[in-house]
Specification:
- The protein is of the alpha/beta class.
- Strands 1, 2, 3, 4, 5, 6, 7, 8, 9, 10, 11 and 12 form a twelve-stranded mixed β-sheet that branches.
- The model has no long low-confidence stretch (mean pLDDT about 90).
- About 30% of the residues lie in helices and about 25% in strands.
- It has a single domain (about 5-240, about 285-295), classed as Rossmann fold.
- The longest helix has 17 residues, at about 280-295.
- It contains ten helices and twelve strands.
Length: about 300
């Protein structure tokens, strides 16, 4: 089944070229079924790239999904055109009266800032509080995961001695959790961040359940309140080229940056990286939509 997105959204052409099933408003409104309403708070600077990454995964399930994009009102994006934001995004004040079946809160390249110094932190905490009563399940990614762990559960972050960047091996810690249904015992996933969370604090918080862990990259998938909140510290949504683009960007800036680990063939940045996590990315998003959103959300919120 498809995802419903605005007809003129630039990501549509990318997804259709990849044979991802999408539809516009007219076709969706003629179908007599109950679609899922998913809200995406996109905090990433290059919003169009993130849109395509997430929609690719949300559009590969048997469910019809209506997508809405949310932006912060207290922070102005400098890397996405105002026209794009005006056409495809809304603000919290415009949607806070609604209920949503699922929500995604993305990462943001600001993890070295204390949370309270982020200029939209107050707005974000209001949104995160709102999700607890108005969203069936919220998926938090990278910095968004650390923000949720800190705000909801008091889990601190700490700065790493060097950036965690690369593709790392992860273990499944609980095969009974439906979010990981179909996962291999070990699987690969990308990370790109400068901070981490203390595993001891996760283990000491009875509300939290650590589902997957990497010896090199640390805690990866954390679940709370029977899946109402899911935190993923890495980037399963990344394309094969994303870490390479980030690496070259940082090199161009003159930053003292290491080559992403286990990513380029033979650790050679001149060689084309392979996507070794795609199947598990699709599986995780499919499991989330099915077991934590579709199976749990009311047919009519009223």
């Amino acid at each position: 089944m498809p995802i419903k997105i605005p007809k003129l959204l630039p990501a549509r052409e990318i997804l259709e070229e990849e044979n991802i099933f999408v539809m516009d408003d007219y076709r969706a409104n003629t179908q007599d079924i109950r679609p899922l309403n998913i809200l995406i708070l996109n905090l990433m600077p290059e919003k169009e790239k993130t849109e395509a990454q997430l929609l690719r995964l949300l559009g590969n399930t048997p469910l019809q999904v209506n997508i809405s994009f949310l932006k912060t009102a207290t922070h102005e994006s400098k890397n996405t055109s105002p026209m794009h934001l005006e056409q495809f995004y809304t603000t919290f004040s415009e949607i806070k009266h609604r209920k949503y079946d699922g929500m995604i809160i993305t990462g943001a390249p600001i993890e070295l800032l204390p949370f309270e110094q982020v200029n939209y932190w107050e707005e974000l905490t209001e949104i995160m509080d709102w999700t607890t009563k108005n969203v069936t399940s919220t998926l938090h990614i990278c910095w968004g995961a650390q923000a949720a762990l800190y705000h909801h559960f008091g889990i601190r972050k700490y700065e790493l001695s060097s950036k965690c960047s690369g593709v790392f091996m992860h273990q499944v810690l609980d095969h009974s959790e439906t979010l990981l249904r179909g996962f291999d015992d070990i699987f690969l996933a990308p990370h790109s961040r400068n901070t981490d969370v203390y595993i001891e604090e996760l283990q000491n918080q009875p509300t939290l359940k650590l589902l997957s862990y990497s010896e090199e990259a640390g805690p990866f998938i954390i679940c709370a309140n029977n899946g109402k909140q899911i935190m993923i510290t890495g980037h399963l949504e990344y394309e094969a080229s994303t870490l390479a683009e980030e690496y070259r960007r940082d090199v161009t800036k003159g930053l003292d940056i290491q080559v992403p680990e286990h990513y380029f063939p033979n650790d050679d940045p001149t060689k084309k990286p392979l996507n070794t996590w795609r199947s598990h990315a699709h599986l995780l998003f499919s499991n989330w939509l099915n077991y934590y959103v579709y199976q749990e959300t009311p047919f009519e919120w009223d």
